[in-house]
Design brief:
9 strands; three-stranded antiparallel beta sheet
Length: 562
């Protein structure tokens, strides 16, 4: 089921800029010619002009379907559905929240150390190359003065390794295996979850009264390292699943999209048809193929087959681990298999294979079936039932005044500026959890309710409530806030402005730590009226307001010249 890769003893260093240009941070696309896209680090949903136009023809201002829609109209809507599922994955699942906030957390986790490094040594970029150059010149004697810089670089690299191995393990395992700074996959997940809890402590908690405290984990993880437990020590075997988050996210979104289309056009209910028409291939099919392989099933002929519904349930369960957040870690040696999305997917599919009679228990796609099937699969795989996960998160409302305050910010869209992007994302995560606890079946199989029960006002309201916050325009460059009838427009616009100011800060901080050369201000996607000088001034003022450093102060170092 899993592939073991032995770490390369001839280690080098990863060029993170090259990897970034190769799309580590993936664009989640709906189809071969990218009629739709959700970009993880832009937090934005994009549609092609063709899809925008068809959507405008299909949906009126009250979000009702217009008369005489065509197949092309519903195909466009299915693209929108596909990309909205990607938004749900990033804002409404534990794995997506961890992945999204892992990037945003770099500034917060390293803030004090970065300020101290600047005070003592000035503005050096990248910190990774600068510290390496000092170490090369001065040797081991430089370790003490480089302690803060090493901490910052290692903190950031740990998060980068987590992102690579969680998203596309097979693609990036060899890059990571050969990197000098890589400790172990268990360490990378440990650091990602530690950062998540530290971030959220600033937003909803007070000294970890309700969240797991990462300081309590260190001793146990050190013991695993000392005992040479695979996955938890330097030079360890690295266990990776055959698929990762990208495969599962794309497979989930694609099969929900196809369920939508066959609900309207039953004559197209053929797996072969969608394979031959450019929908099912590559990353859109890889998780489903692994699912069939584990189940020892060669062919599933129809999209309407209950096995497809169970595939979507397993995707939903796989992307929502509970160990480390919101629950504490109990069995530290199982931490990797508890939180890695690809491994979870495989173990849950094995559970279905060993309880194959469950295929006959999915008929109505109801809440009762969702809860029953989830219990059977999770119990067999050794995972927490999703209702317990949701109950745990929602219980915090009665234990934390900061939790209550955050949700008041969500209701008004007047967010405190302290870690504002994190406040925005986490408040939407909480609201998603509230609604999912009531209607888990809708969020697992939305196409069953958007069409067959489309007249149900409750499902329509849930759909509209959880559309993406930000999107594009059919004829103009830039990202724009989605208009909301239930929020003041000035609050929505301010939230948008503050959010993207914050994300620019996180990007610049990452560049400061890891990326050699001048700062790359690639923010032309943000605005229709992009003017390079104005973008520089905006980014520079954003950076100065936090660090009191002008971007033009930085002295550049390059790892190739060390």
């Amino acid at each position: 089921m899993f592939r073991n890769i032995i770490l390369n003893t001839n280690k080098t260093e990863i060029d993170f800029e090259i990897l970034k240009s190769e799309q580590i941070y993936s664009k989640f696309e709906a189809c071969l010619n990218a009629h739709g896209m959700y970009e993880t680090l832009k937090f934005s949903l994009s549609l092609s002009p063709v899809v925008h136009n068809l959507m405008d023809e299909l949906i009126d201002e009250n979000n009702n379907i217009m008369d005489n829609p065509t197949y092309e109209h519903f195909q466009a809507y299915s693209t929108y559905l596909h990309e909205t599922i990607h938004w749900w994955q990033h804002v409404g699942s534990v794995s997506g929240l961890l992945f999204s906030l892992s990037y945003l957390g770099i500034t917060y986790i390293n803030f004090e150390d970065l300020k101290e490094i600047y005070r003592d040594f000035g503005a050096k970029k990248s910190l990774k190359s600068w510290s390496s150059s000092i170490l090369k010149k001065e040797g081991a004697l430089a370790q003490k003065k480089l302690a803060k810089a090493n901490t910052v670089v290692n903190n950031t690299l740990d998060i980068e390794y987590y992102q690579l191995l969680a998203l596309e393990p097979k693609r990036f395992a060899h890059y990571v295996n050969g990197d000098n700074f890589f400790e172990s996959i268990g360490h990378s997940y440990h650091m990602a979850y530690s950062q998540l809890n530290r971030l959220l402590d600033t937003v909803i908690d007070d000294e970890f009264k309700i969240l797991p405290h990462p300081e309590n984990w260190q001793k146990k993880f050190n013991e695993l390292s000392d005992k040479k437990i695979d996955g938890y020590y330097y030079g360890s075997v690295i266990i990776i699943p055959p698929i990762g988050m990208l495969d599962i996210y794309e497979g989930q979104a694609k099969f929900i999209q196809l369920q939508f289309l066959i609900s309207l056009y039953p004559e197209l209910d053929s797996m072969e048809y969608w394979c031959n028409n450019g929908h099912l291939y590559g990353v859109y099919l890889s998780a489903f193929n692994e699912y069939k392989r584990i189940l020892n099933i060669d062919v599933i002929e129809k999209i309407s087959d209950p096995l497809v519904g169970l595939f979507l349930l397993i995707c939903d369960l796989a992307i929502n681990p509970s160990v480390g957040f919101p629950f504490n870690i109990e069995k530290y040696e199982n931490f990797i298999t508890d939180v890695d999305v690809g491994i979870r997917f495989c173990k849950l599919t094995v559970a279905l294979r060993e309880k194959i009679y469950l295929i006959d228990r999915l008929n109505d796609y109801s809440k009762q079936e969702y809860l029953y099937l989830s219990y059977e699969l999770c119990e067999h795989a050794g995972y927490t039932h999703p209702s317990l996960l949701l109950d745990k998160i929602l219980s915090w409302e009665n234990k934390s005044d900061k939790f209550v305050s955050l949700m008041k910010e969500y209701e008004s869209f007047e967010f405190d500026l302290s870690n504002q992007p994190i406040r925005v994302m986490f408040s939407h995560f909480i609201e998603f959890c509230k609604d999912k606890s009531l209607r888990p079946e809708f969020f697992c199989w939305p196409s069953k309710f958007l069409i067959s029960q489309g007249s149900n006002q409750e499902f329509k309201e849930l759909w509209l409530k959880h559309l993406s916050l930000f999107g594009d325009h059919p004829y103009k460059k830039g990202v724009y806030p989605r208009l909301r009838n239930d929020r003041k427009q000035e609050n929505v616009q301010k939230t948008f402005n503050d959010f993207y100011g914050g994300t620019a800060l996180y990007d610049l901080t990452r560049q400061w730590i890891l990326i050699d050369g001048d700062f790359k201000l690639n923010y032309n996607w943000l605005s229709e009226n992009y003017i390079e000088k104005d973008i520089f001034e905006w980014a520079n003022e954003t950076f100065k307001s936090v660090y009191s450093i002008d971007l033009r102060e930085f002295e550049n170092f390059n790892h190739n010249n060390i």
